[in-house]
Design a protein that fits this description.
The chain is mostly beta strands. The protein contains two helices and 17 strands.
Length: 363
């Protein structure tokens, strides 16, 4: 089966790379992303894991039907071959936030395979504003905590702590409703989801609200967001107890001229429930390729510190750097380097380097 999936993904890669038009008609369009990576880990510290190199190739076709200017149907499928280093990595956070082979099968323990998103959206024109309502199988990170430079595991940082990948901070691919109110430079968002759990047959409730402001200055565009989200009846990783999980997140990104931009994402838990981390502090910069006459290219540099809770005392440090080389409108290659370190209260730390080469095809 794994061999079949590998050939399927390779066939899809060759197929979509030869297609130039994706507007099937005036209402129906086909888009998506296909990525592949080879990752190698070089470990140090006291760990039973071994140095290894692994591959993975996810493909996510998207079908959009625009019934009217105000009505939209969306379907996103996910297929993948391989797990990359995610299955063999000793680190508390996976080295790549993509939806890999085991992520697209029995999604979140729901029994559903390959259907990541399926929703209907309706936009209402109001006086000097717009309101959009989305209902169906959704991804909460599409509406909360977006970031211009640290939000995409296929085109930007690979580590989930920097990419805000699905299921890293917010649930994804479960039933829910989202509302977005667009008023001048403000966007107010709210999400409610009924989420499946891998560790339990019970579901839990997720809510999230965000206020986002877009500011245009002589420096460039800046986006400033504050997010409050929480879970109810969340089962801990051991599947033993129900918990609540309330979090406050501040997510910012700002341009500084044509060449440099920066981002910050800071989050704190608002309760004392025993979940791995109590706070995240991350920041980084984006350097545009205009500096070396490669306008589409960019360099990303990011740092993360995750503060452990009182029970397990996992403190995680992550540093990631990448260079994204754009070949054409569709294809780009990324050279990625990560340093990861997990510190534990009662056992030796785990640390090491992750070397990755990622190819991404947008169609």
């Amino acid at each position: 089966m794994k061999s079949f999936k590998t050939y399927f993904v390779l066939f899809a890669f060759l197929s979509v790379s030869t297609v130039n038009a994706y507007e099937l008609n005036e209402k129906l369009s086909l888009n998506g992303i296909l990525a592949g990576t080879i990752q190698c880990q070089e470990l140090s510290g006291d760990t039973v894991a071994e140095n290894a190199c692994e591959t993975a190739a996810p493909i996510q076709p998207e079908l959009t039907y625009r019934a009217t200017w105000h009505d939209r149907l969306f379907l996103k499928l996910g297929f993948a071959a391989g797990h990359g280093l995610n299955d063999v990595s000793p680190f508390n956070i996976a080295p790549w936030g993509a939806d890999l082979e085991e992520d697209v099968e029995n999604i979140n323990g729901s029994g559903r395979d390959y259907i990541l998103e399926a929703w209907y959206a309706r936009t209402f024109d109001l006086d000097n504003s717009r309101l959009a309502i989305t209902l169906g199988i959704i991804d909460a990170s599409s509406y909360l905590d977006q970031n211009a430079y640290a939000n995409d595991e296929y085109r930007q940082f690979m580590n989930p702590a920097l990419s805000n990948a699905p299921n890293a901070f917010f649930p994804a691919y479960d039933p829910g409703i989202a509302a977005e109110w667009f008023f001048e430079n403000w966007i107010f968002s709210a999400v409610y989801m009924d989420v499946h759990q891998v560790t339990s047959s019970d579901k839990y409730s997720f809510y999230g609200v965000q206020a986002a402001y877009r500011l245009e200055t002589t420096l460039g565009t800046g986006n400033y967001r504050i997010v409050v989200n929480g879970d109810r009846n969340f089962i801990d990783q051991a599947g033993e107890s129900k918990q609540k999980n309330d979090i406050l997140i501040i997510s910012l990104d700002q341009q500084f001229g044509d060449e440099i931009a920066a981002f910050v994402r800071i989050g704190w838990r608002l309760d004392d429930q025993p979940i791995d981390y109590s706070a995240i502090y991350s920041s980084g910069i984006d350097i545009g390729g205009i500096s070396w006459n490669r306008l589409p290219d960019n360099i990303g540099l990011g740092l993360v510190y995750l503060e452990g809770d009182d029970r397990r005392m996992i403190n995680t440090r992550i540093a990631e750097a990448y260079y994204r080389m754009v070949i054409n409108t569709y294809l780009a290659f990324t050279f990625d380097l990560q340093y990861m370190q997990d510190e534990y209260a009662q056992s030796a730390e785990t640390k090491g380097m992750i070397y990755s080469l990622r190819a991404t095809l947008n169609y």
